[in-house]
Amino acid sequence: MSHSDTVPLNTSSQSDIDEIENLLVMHQHGPSHTHYPGSVPAARPSSPPRASIPVSTSISVPSALPTPKTPVSVGPIPKPSMESPPTPDYGAGKAPTGFGGGPSANTLTEPVWLTIKRDLIRIGTNLRHVVFPNPYREDPGQALRDWDLWGPFFFIVFLGVAISYSASSDNSKVFAVVFAVLAAGAVILTLNVLLLGGHIIFFQSLSLLGYCLFPLDIGALICMLNSHPIVNGIVVLITLAWSSWAAYPFVSAAVSSNRKALAVYPVFLLYVSIGFFIFAV
Amino acid sequence: MLLPFQEANLQTFPPSNAHSKLLGSYPSHAGEESTGSRPQNGDESQGGLPRFLRVSTYQPYFDVNTEDVSQRILHSLLLNWGEFMTVTNHNPDLYGPFWICTTLIFVASAFGNFSTYLSNSSSWQFDIGKVNWAAGLFYAYTFLLPLLLYFFLKYINVALGLVQLWCLYGYSLFVFIPVSFIALVPVSVLKWVVVAGAGLISTTFVITSLKMHLGSSEWSFVVIIGLIILQASFALAFKILFFA
């Protein structure tokens, strides 16, 4: 059970084995043995290098930020008061773990509610940074340092359900079309910026375009509950403008200035078409 | 007199020496390294993905600026008698065709629904089938038909590049966008006239752009007639499906 035999396992399973070993060790040696999993030398290889977002090292303090890694992810059990910050190479190996960086928490042994709460807080934080009018609104290049895909997923599904709910026929077809348009649209918009020679990170851009759907979600909710066409039209226009306002700085900052219109126009087209679906269906 | 065609690698799709265009002062060269989407940034020498799946392979086809695109759109509307092909000879782009096609899908389905609403506002419901039909028809027309044309032109030994045909057909659809706006007016005759006019403009655009490259063999006459028929049936389908 030594940690020096580095059998080249899959990243997550090696870390699972580490964690189980450590739990057994802690149990065997009792509370006198202060053997925190955080001090185990990282026998497992660090996670595959993803495109890393510039994460400041101050984020490496454990319980500060949530990380919605898949349930098999492991890491140091967050004990902020007792544990010193992780060793440098451990921290460096942990930082670029996708999903916006930050140390991944031990989601196997904590209550489910805690995991969900962490994700919800992250979604709220990202919303506040991206969507809401905010005088301290961050520089678009750093916009979603902590990107995740749960928020966009929830917004897209909610939008599809809201639009298909108020359709009078062919509800499932409507949902399928809206979902396909939104999901494929986000991917195609990101590819469009990349092909025009822009500098963005793929998943960060997907995440941001998903978060900018939040105003349209509000509009869809209002239109679902209300059926007066003029009010619906005004609401859709306002939320459409809000969504476009939220997404514009990010996309326009990513390409060179003589192609800005080429990159921004498809974003506008997507939001206008979704706004039209909200209004008309 | 055939215009000399640059047997540029951009005409073969995907290009075989994409990187030769990216070397030099091309800004997208740095952009390739920052893409997190493809798992190729671990080790440069490995080259994770096959070449046809990488973003950088297709970047030469999107090397246009805003004024290039608007200039090409103006060419398609004003029918500058074959200048379009010389303009796009060295730099055919795929941005225009794809986004004009996508815009047209949205515009046609939205305004088609709106025009049925204006005809009988009492019992109207949004017809989502129009979106599906629009997507199928426009994407097939813009991307499949030039492919077939390319193979046929190769058979009769005419040197035209595939990407250039895509570019041509994509921009030829632009005229249907303003026409959709006009066809909202619920007067049946106006709808027919306007869609027929759009069909005429796009057909003329395609034919005049292709004619000087087709030579004067008997096949070229067949090709021209065939293209006219196809474009006319496209305009007809457009009218019937969306603005009936």
Helix content of chain B: 55-70%
Output the structural class of chain B. mainly alpha
The oligomeric status of these chains comes to heterodimer
Spell out the helices and strands of chain A N to C. Answer: HHHHHHHHH
**CA distance, first residue to last residue of chain A:** 62 Å
**Unreliable residue runs of chain A:** 33-42, 56-98
Largest interface: A-B, 39 and 37 residues
Number of helices of chain B: 11
Give the uncertain stretches of chain B in residue-range form: 1-7, 17-46
Amino-to-carboxy terminus distance of chain B: 44 Å
Helicity of chain A, as a percent range: 55-70%
Number of strands of chain A: 0
Number of helices of chain A: 9
- Sheet with the most strands, sense and barrel status of chain B: none
Apparent shape of chain B: globular
Radius of gyration of CA atoms of chain A, rounded to a whole number: 22 Å
Q: How would you describe this protein?
A:
The complex is a heterodimer of chains A (about 280) and B (about 240). Helices cover about 55% and strands about 0% of the residues of chain A. Chain A is an all-alpha fold and about 280 residues long. Chain A starts with 10 loop residues before the first helix and ends with a helix. Chain B has 11 helices and no strands. Chain B has helices at about 20, 30-35, 55-60, 65-80, 85, 95-120, 130-155, 160-170, 175-180, 190-215, 220-240. The radius of gyration of chain B is 20 Å and the shape is globular. The interface of A and B includes residues 177 and 201 of A. Chain A: InterPro entries: Yip1/4-like (IPR045231), Yip1_dom (IPR006977). Chain A: It is found in: Golgi apparatus membrane; Membrane. Chain A: Pfam families: Yip1.
